[in-house]
Amino acid sequence: LIHDSLNAATESLNRTPEKLKVLAKAGVVDAGAQGFVHLLEGILHFMQSGKIERIARGILSFGNVKAKVEEAPEDITFQYCTQAFVVGKDIDRQTLKTRLRELGDSMIVAGSNERVRIHIHTNEPDTVFAIASEYGELINSKKDDMRGQHTRAHHDPAAQTVAIITDSSCDLPGDDFIRYNVRMVPVVVAFGNKSYIDKVTITDRDFYQQLAASTVNPTTSQPAPGDFKEVYLDAAQNHREALAIILSGSLSGTLQAAQLAAQTVHNDVNIRVLDSKNVCVALGLIVREAAEAAESGASLAEVEKRAEWAIKNVRLVFMVEGVEALMRSGRVSRLRGGMARMLNLKPILTINTEGKAQVLAKAFSSRQARKKLVEIVKKEARGKRNLRFMVAHANAPETAAYLAGQLRKHFELRDVPITSVSPALGVHAGPGAAAIAFLGE
To answer: What span, in angstroms and rounded, lies between the C-alpha atoms of 173 and 289?
Structure first.
């Protein structure tokens, strides 16, 4: 009976990959079934020999054995693990639950009528935050990209030893943050006493809608060193080293926060912090260069060298529709801003080698500003090889489409990536701003 049972169990074990696609994909059999087969083998061996082999004691070593584990991000139905803490008055938890339930699964809404904690897996984190904010002030809101975490967890550390980290002023199109395995530390955007996490609890669309409706001017604040430390330690779980490429130290104190945090985790991970001396899609191009080098298996020194090359060779040229936002943020004095507004000037600017904003030209209309911006880029990119471009806009998709079209036509390009500037940059550039970044040899 035991002999026949063992044969039947072995046959069933060999068929387990046919029953579960994930087993066939990984090239393995079911572990539990394998254990049961071993149990039957042991029983049969004892019955036939009357002996039980002595089990050696000691520490097991698996050397460099690696499981053949395949990524299966498609199995994650809801991408974002979304959490929020709401502080308000007379919070109707039942109604809140009902409104959130249709947005995902694994939902928890717990607390009192004044303090409620929310947890939900969803594909619409911004909708969750918007609904939650109707019931009070959001505290410690965050969303974790579970597909991105899955990808990083299954990423072969032998192939990429260097983690790439940046801040939310880095603008990259689409899913490039996930594609290039880039970790981001967000800036904080605030309307009065209501704060949002850049690119996390506020999108560019939400930002411009609120900007149009709000009587309070938005502000930004840099991430705390603790925010960087948290991301550094997360990177240390899968990487031996890390390179943080941060927005210009001449424009923000974010760089200093990143440097301070690096000093506190030097025993956990070897981190280098670079001043990009740039921002927006120019920072995006720098980060992408470094990420591609890291992805190829380059060492920290090699990745850093590639990033430093990109910092020296990248160029950002941008236009602003008006100077009001620049005046609010202190980037332009009230006297100069008042004169520019009176003359309806549209400044065209760049970020110079010191990482500071510098005026290149002026225009008296949006149409003229767009044309001048393109002409400046054509002139400065002339003679460069292997050119890479990116276009960004602040709630100005038509302007971005025009700029990308001109670049495609003049440089005979198949495609020019377009992305929105982060809400944090939108605070300082204002609606209608647009930028071109390019990098070449």
So the answer is: 14
Q: What is the CATH number of the domain that holds 237?
A: 3.40.50.10170
Residue found under tokens 């002595």: 54
CA distance 365 to 344: 7
Whether 436 and 373 have beta carbons less than 8 Å apart is answered as: yes
| 103 lies in some domain | yes
Q: Could you tell me if 248 and 356 are in contact, meaning their C-beta atoms sit under 8 angstroms apart?
A: yes
Count the domains in the chain: 4
CA 343 to chain CA mean position, Å: 40
In this structure, what token pair is assigned to residue 311? 């910092």
According to DSSP H, which parts of 180-253 are helical?
204-213, 225-236
CA angle centred on 162, ends 161 and 163, rounded to 5°: 125
CA distance 300 to 314: 21
Token pair 């696609």: residue: 21
Write down the pTM of the prediction: 0.71
Query: Do 226 and 161 belong to one domain?
Result: yes
Which one-letter amino acid corresponds to residue 405?
Answer: G
Strand pairing class (357-363; 388-393): unpaired
| Contact (CB, 8 A) for 435 and 317 | yes
| pLDDT tens, position by position, 281-333 | 999 999 999 999 999 999 999 999 999 999 999 999 999 986 665 656 555 55
Mean per-residue pLDDT of the chain = 85
Give the Cα separation of 246 and 264 in Å (integer).
18
- Residue whose pair of structure tokens reads 């377009």 in the numeric block: 418
Number of alpha carbons in the 13 Å side-chain half-sphere of residue 35: 3
| Residues 392 and 171 sit within 8 Å (Cβ to Cβ) | yes
Helix (H, G, I), strand (E, B) or coil at 429: helix
Q: Which domain holds residue 323?
A: 315-439
Count CA within 13 A, CB hemisphere, residue 371: 6
